[in-house]
Amino acid sequence: MPSKKLDFKTGQYVVYPTQGVGKLQRIEEQEIAGQSVKLLVIEFEASHMTLRVPLERAEISGLRPLTSARKMDEAISSAKGRAGSKRMIWSRRAAQYEENINSGDPMKVAEVVRDLRRHNPTDTMTFSARQLYLRALERMAQEFAVLHKMDVDAASEKIEDMLGVPKEIDLNAVDIDEEEVDESADNEE
Questions:
Q1: 3-state secondary structure at position 50
Q2: CA-to-CA distance for 44 and 59, rounded, in angstroms?
């Protein structure tokens, strides 16, 4: 089956499955093992990493252009749904979530966000579940941020707001009664 030729341009944002969103800096030619090879030079700002992908292996590696705004909206809608089956043991589910995150597919990343997001402020997560959730949310937010011209943190907050994820409760926060503040100010005089 003939594959479609991916057309990449310098300055274009692309998604590399295991790294997330990067910017194509240039296409360069290098001699490797006596053969001339065209390489896509991709810079990932978040991880301060530069990756060189042979042009002829770009499609096989899973490198793709950014998704469309419509597809991103579909992914977010999918993440709003009900969590999938949790009948597998955690290690298998975690491996499946990891695979979905590294697939680079926005719909699969949205499934991870959907399955692991908190539904009320008192929900707790294990450390590993929280790490997987945050990685999946960051991957979604990277594409969302470029599509909507915002920074990744703002995009994460926007996505969580859209999903209805409750804000975390700060268990270390101290409620200060206004009367106590007034009394302490009076005592200082």
A1: strand
A2: 18
